[in-house]
Amino acid sequence: MSVEIIPTDAVLGAEIRGVDLARPLDYATFCEIERAFNAHAVIFFRDQRITPPQQVAFTRRFGEIEFNVFGERWSVPGSPEIVVVSNATEDDRPIGVRRAGENWHSDMCYTARPPRGTMLYALEIPDLFGLALGDTEFASAAEAWDALPQPIKQRIDGRRAVFDFSGRKRAFPPTRAEIDRFPPVRHPIVRTHPQTGRKCLYVMRDDCTGIEGMEAEEAEALIAALADHIVKPAFIYRHQWRRGDLLMWDNCTVQHRAVQDYDLPRRRLMHRTTMGGAVPM
Ligand code: SIN
Description:
3-stranded antiparallel sheet; binds succinic acid
């Protein structure tokens, strides 16, 4: 395969051309894709036709599959590694996680080893008058760190925040048993990317409920200020989906949110897989 990497006009993101993910990927091609993933933080392949096992196998090339708690309720039959993300219903029952990721976040930051990355494969995309709805926005937490003034960099580097699974409001609230599986964890609010060595801000509203050694009021204000900074327009790439897109993002370098500008009868259906990560440093 002859791979072409076309960066978007934003500070992150690239389209990868010349790859058919339904065919076996040789080692050299995989390495090129992985380099692009590290460099651009969000990469996407258009016009793919892959089966659930092919998506799982491709995800595994980047690390062991990470199981998501919502996948226990909504996974693809025969592929428990894939979480169904959808607003659709069958017999009045949701077929997937609805309104997943509507607020800015990094996936599973509430775990001790948050996932390296996440993949979404687009099966159905809603539209209005032929205009695609249900975009996903990505913000570069690495560019956001680089742009911070030196005094605030010095003030926050080395500090740790508390990440709490129950902090975020979800369309499908977790059960008590699910909450108990994820006691609060502490992570550095300035992470170093394990592959690129770039520093990235790692702070989210709601998920971060405090900062070690800081009064609650000051911590809340600092978390809000940093969370707002990360999602400034200069740091954002907005992906307009097409059916057949396979897109993957790096959970250290970017935060993301799903734009909720559609509803039934317009259906959106995605298959999501998540690749295991390391303890944030
Ligand atoms: C997510 O946050 O995993 C979902 C993103 C999306 O559906 O666009």
